[in-house]
């Protein structure tokens, strides 16, 4: 009786994506875009010419990251970038400083909203569960 289980069955499909431009969503919520140069049996990735793309509302900014090694267990979503659609994004590109400021303001607003919600619940004798954070997000 032969065992036809291919140990690379899951990651073998990634070999078809070598040298293609991919978008990778990580467990911590970051979005990376780069060219897949290497993958191993654990789905660890090596991305080349990588940028970290930050979205806030209808704006985005790209932070150059260069060569980026991603541990396979941190990948939530991976997909090929459609070059035609990438050129016609319905978003506005802004500078890195502008997008980082917008991201900070968005995070501050979320914290303030959490505080108001927590206060309102406390007044009613209820407690808000602690945020599980990005690691438990997916």
From TrEMBL:
It holds the Pfam family LSM. Keywords: Cytoplasm, mRNA processing, mRNA splicing, Phosphoprotein, Ribonucleoprotein, RNA-binding. It is found in: Cytoplasm; Cytoplasm, P-body. InterPro entries: Lsm1, LSM_dom_sf, PTHR15588, Sm, Sm_dom_euk/arc. PROSITE patterns: SM (PS52002). The keyword RNA-binding applies. GO terms for molecular function: mRNA binding. SUPFAM superfamilies: Sm-like ribonucleoproteins. It comes from the Eukaryota. GO terms for cellular component: Lsm1-7-Pat1 complex; P-body; ribonucleoprotein complex. Its main location: cytoplasm. Residues 9-84 form the Sm domain. Gene3D superfamilies: 2.30.30.100. SMART domains: Sm (SM00651). GO terms for biological process: deadenylation-dependent decapping of nuclear-transcribed mRNA; mRNA processing; RNA splicing. Interacts with SLBP; interaction with SLBP occurs when histone mRNA is being rapidly degraded during the S phase. LSm subunits form a heteromer with a donut shape. Plays a role in the degradation of histone mRNAs, the only eukaryotic mRNAs that are not polyadenylated. Probably also part of an LSm subunits-containing complex involved in the general process of mRNA degradation. Probably involved with other LSm subunits in the general process of degradation of mRNAs. Belongs to the snRNP Sm proteins family. This is U6 snRNA-associated Sm-like protein LSm1. It comes from Euphydryas editha (Edith's checkerspot). The gene is LSM1.
């Amino acid at each position: 009786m032969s065992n036809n289980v291919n140990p690379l069955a899951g990651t073998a499909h990634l070999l078809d994506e070598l040298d293609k431009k991919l978008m990778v969503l990580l467990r911590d919520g970051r979005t990376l875009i780069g060219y897949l140069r290497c993958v191993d049996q654990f789905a660890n990735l090596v991305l080349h010419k990588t940028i970290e793309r930050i979205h806030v509302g209808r704006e985005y900014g790209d932070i150059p990251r260069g060569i980026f090694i991603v541990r396979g267990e941190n990948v939530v979503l991976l997909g090929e970038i459609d070059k035609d659609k990438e050129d016609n994004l319905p978003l506005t590109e802004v500078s890195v400083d502008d997008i980082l400021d917008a991201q900070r303001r968005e995070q501050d607003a979320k914290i303030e909203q959490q505080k108001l919600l927590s206060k309102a619940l406390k007044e009613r004798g209820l407690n808000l569960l602690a945020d599980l954070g990005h690691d438990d997000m997916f």
